[in-house]
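Entry 14. Structure prediction run on the chain below.
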Amino acid sequence: MPTSKPYSREMAEQLAFGAPFAPTSLDAQKAAALRAGTLDLPPNRTWKMPADIAWDENPFEEPNWVAQFHMMRWIDPLRRQAEKGDTALLDLWLRIAEGWIEQNPPGRGRANYSWADMIEASRAMTFAFALPVLEDHRPEKLPVILDSLEQHGAWLTDKRRIRTGNHALQQHQGLLVIGAVLQRQEWVDLAVQRSETMLHQSYDGQGINEEGAVQYHQINYIWWNNLGRRVRIATGSTPEAFQRVNRAPLAMAHATRPDGRYELIGDTEEFTPRALGHPAIDYVSSAGVQGIAPLERVAIFDSGYIYGRSTWGDEHQRFTDASFYSLRFGPQNRIHGHADGMALTLWAGGESLLVDSGKYAYDAKDPYRAHLLSREAHNSLTIAGAEYDRTSAVELIAASRHDDFEHYRFEDRGYSGVRLSREILISLRWKIAIIVDSFDTDHNLDNDVTLSQWWHLSPEAGHRKEDSSIVTRTSTNELRFAWPNSATSTRITRGAKNPVQGWFSPSWRKLEPVRTIEASVSGRSGRLITGLSFSAAAHPLPLEITTDDEQDGLLIHLKRGDSAEFSALLQESAALLTAGVRTAPELALALR
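Output returned:
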């Protein structure tokens, strides 16, 4: 039976690829569950569907569930199993799809997410890819699906409905698919033009994505490559701008810890990069067995990421045994980023010693989500009682790399009337770090302020105080903090609920209590100097730190329990670290 409206069967078939539209080994199981009336939308619980869906359901009070529900991608296994011969499943597909269409006219859906950005695009692709099998087995039902696709296409052409980040990416992809399938060339051209423009905004010259979260760097890499492939199928070529995406895997490899998982920067969960077809990703996902390691041990990305490690693997130390750190700077209002400027994470001895906060969830009203986004949830600095301006940017003022250590200096004006600076000297070879945090207030501020420095430890770590230091231990590692200033006050918080503090989220809706160290100092200006030493737990290493303000800079001396002594001279834009005791004049002479 001919259809009432023309469409391109070839495009509907060729564009149906990639997750979640490609066949999987679970298709039969998922189709059987839907036939039995149960729906799984991970990471949420299983839902028993009513006989008649009202489309205003939210059984778990979870925005993520409602969004997935209205995307309709979950009915695609019915289409794929019908293509394999179980055509009776098309009746269930149609009952669900037609029910949605009837209850959710454009802009007047039964739920807030019915026509939300990205959701409408995913649903349109689900409808478009079912056209061939409907034509073969239920051709009388094609008109209602084709009419809905026309409505979705008209909706997506309106630039006022296009959002940002990966939501906009999916909107462009949805419009492209609709245009190609419905043979609306003007929609195809508009989708390609929007995609090309967005690529120049979404990726910088180093392949860093705008989202502000390492996990989204990978997700967007996959999605942009899928979009590029669909553009090539629909138009015969891919614009040059899509080549920017190909630079992304190298940065993703640098963001991978020695355990083969991404560091939890921004909205990132415990997540393993793999199967991206890039030699650096092959290397980090195979523990250095396959692929090719990046050339640089330390990488600085201008968009606001610093990654350093002791080695990529050599005759002295395997890839999995390396130490690793990350630092953040740049804009603090990334789409999936956190207020994590100047934050330090640290991995050594096979585990995270200083953790980032993790994603947890997307519900902005959830107090734990709000906390995990905040400065107080990261290994950074805060001003007590002051609101941080997320539109600000943390500047990297100086950076230098040496054989045995790296040195960085940051400046942050995200708190009104206060200038914060953080200077970090870190040596993965000697397993020490020196952090100098300082603050100055503007003349128009009448009162003293309190600067707090936060350190979030491994969930397995215990602690104890020793004079002017705090030692934290896991079963395999020891991390020590020492402060030279008796005016520095410290306290430990773990799993507090009011106010929320001392939490870590490794995966969706999962919270683990962690010990959190707060060191603070008050005044119109001030400084917090902190020494860190990390080593195997079997060898306790007391740490002492002393400081002197010299004419040539700030001289800091660390003395550790293994008889190692370190002297560091920090100047305006440079640093020097030596193992063994040296006098200030000797250090100044060496620095010159």
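The first helix runs from residue 9 to 14.
Filed with the rest of this week's runs.
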